[in-house]
Amino acid sequence: MDKKITIAIDGFSSTGKSTLAKQLAKDLGYVYVDTGAMYRAIAFFSMQNGFIKTDYLDKESLIKSLPNIQLQFQFNPDLGFAEMYLNGENVEKQIRTIAVSSFVSKVAEIPEVRSKLVEQQQQMSKDKGVVMDGRDIGTVVFPDAELKIYMTASAQTRAQRRYDELIQKGDSVTFEEVLHNVEERDYIDTHRSNSPLVKAEDAIEIDNSHLTREEQFKLVLDLVQQKLV
Ligand code: DC
Asked: Which of the residues 3, 57, 107, 152 has an alpha carbon 20 to 30 A from that of 214?
């Protein structure tokens, strides 16, 4: 049987992790898991249930509700990747709004949320052949992953990418709002006490500020091939 590995991709928001992960999964015939979508779905659930008020998150109510939250990925052959379902409902669009982006880091700080999601993520790579992206994949979820990538790019570059995406989707946001959101999330993601974003010792760092998608893909595919021999 062909050798299969686990590929862990970590890094700041909007570094193009999901683009790279989707390209790799498609080329290798692997399963792609977007762990950010899981944290986003929980943030969206908190909004739907009134746990988020202006600038405050009712953590206690969210923790009590965790057993009622069912998350599932369902592959969409038209899109070529799996979409996020929250309690049976496709929430792929709802979890990508700036409102969810603004709150998701607060939700991702909660230890009970993290342990629920990490357990589910670990189950997904039982048979290998998985590309997973997030913040703690190479450090906490799969410390033994055969290939770990740590992606970086300047905050300006990343904000511009996210801004272009949102505008294309018809959201009315300003560049400054998006940049502020990116910087705020960077701060929270790297400073939280539980599983902060850090580069795993054995991860390979790629700064893609000046790389095209194709160049980056070829570079990483090469690293994958080295692990497969
Ligand atoms: O990758 P993303 O921007 O969709 O992630 C959304 C948020 O979820 C981000 O602010 C950090 C958090 N996250 C996390 O803490 N751990 C992960 N494995 C994935 C995402």
From this structure: 3
Name the one residue in this structure whose structure tokens are 């939700």: 107
pLDDT attached to residue 129: 94
According to DSSP H, which parts of the chain are helical? Answer: 17-28, 35-48, 59-65, 98-108, 111-124, 155-168, 175-191, 213-228
> Which helix H or strand E contains 97, and what residues bound it?
none
Report how far ligand 1's centroid is from the alpha carbon of 225 (Å).
28
Residue nearest to atom 3 of ligand 1 (CA): 13
Q: How many Cα atoms occupy the beta-carbon half-sphere of 6 within 13 Å?
A: 20
The secondary structure of residue 143, as a DSSP letter, is T
- Polymer length of the chain: 229
Q: Which domains does the chain have, with CATH numbers?
A: 6-228 (3.40.50.300)
CA of 38 to the centre of ligand 1 (A): 8
| Distance separating the N- and C-terminal Cα atoms of the chain | 13
**pTM for the predicted model, two decimal places:** 0.92
Amino acid making up residue 47: M
Q: Check if the beta carbon of residue 31 is closer than 8 Å to that of residue 129.
A: yes
